[in-house]
Structures are given as structure tokens and as C-alpha cells.
Amino acid sequence: MFDFLKSESPKFKYSSELPSSFKYAKPQFFALLFTTLLCIASLYFAMKIENGVKYEIGGRGILTLIIAIANFGIVKIITGHIMLIGIICLAIVNRLKSRSETEYLKR
Fold first, then answer.
1. Pick from 14, 4, 11, 7: which is nearest to 105 by CA?
2. What DSSP string runs through 35-97?
3. Model confidence pLDDT, tens digit, residues 20-75
4. Taking the CA atoms of the chain, what radius of gyration do you get in angstroms?
5. Residue 51 within any structural domain of the chain
6. pTM to 2 decimal places
7. Domain count, the chain
8. Which residues span the domain enclosing 52?
């Protein structure tokens, strides 16, 4: 289909390029960022809980999720974060290995 369009439209400029690493694996990088921010917030509340501060889980929201994760404790949060980071890094590596050229027709 693309070859047909390329041959039938001589006015268009044809180009092919390899997308940048960030552009190609953007969802995995955002997952890495979100997971890290969630871990930092959970670690903060886990340290507060271990120092004796009491929190009540109520309602629906991101803070409820963070406090629920903080109740697992510091060691389990760090272990879980390391596992998630490993999975995300594998996803990034696999995604970047399968990177292919993208062809464009521009006016």
C-alpha cells in the first residue's frame, strides 16, 4: 500500500528514519517515572508509620493507594520497587531491540 502511494504521488517527498529511543519507548519511560514517584511517596509514609504516626485509610484516591502500600513496610516496598524496575527495564530493552525504520510521505 505504501509503495503504491509513493509511486502514485510524485509531489510528495519520501523519507525513512529510525525513531529516537525516547520516542519509541516513551510509555515504558513514563511507567518508570510513575513507579518511582509512587515508591518515593510510599517510602515517605512507611517511614512515618514506623515512627509511630497513625493514618486512616478512607475514601478513594491516590493517597489511599500510597498509604495502603506504605503499610507493607520499607523492606517490602523496596523489594517490590526493585522487581518493578527490573520488569520495566526488560520491557524497555525489548522495545528498543525491535525498533524499525518509519517511512514518511511529506507534502
1. 14
2. HHHHHHHHHHHHHHHHTT------SSSHHHHHHHHHTT-HHHHHHHHHHHHHHHHHHHHHHHH
3. 888 888 888 999 999 999 999 999 999 999 999 888 877 788 899 999 999 999 99
4. 23
5. yes
6. 0.74
7. 1
8. 20-99
Cell of 11: 509531489
**What's the residue count for the chain?**
107
Residue 13 lies in a domain: no
The grid cell for 90 is: 526488560
Q: What is the phi/psi pair of residue 56, to 5°?
A: -105, 135
Q: Exposed, middle or buried by CB within 10 Å (0-12, 13-18, 19+), for 1? A: exposed
Cell of 89: 527495564
40 occurs within a structural domain: yes
Specify if 48 maps to a domain.
yes
